Amino acid sequence: PTSTPVFPWLDLRPGDLFVAARKGLPLKILWGNQNTPDRLLLDLTGSASFPGSEQHVAIGFVDTDGQTAMTILPVQAGQVFTLSVRTQLSSLQQPGRVAWFHFLPMRLHRYPAP
Question: Which stretches of 1-114 are DSSP H helices?
Answer without folding.
Answer: none
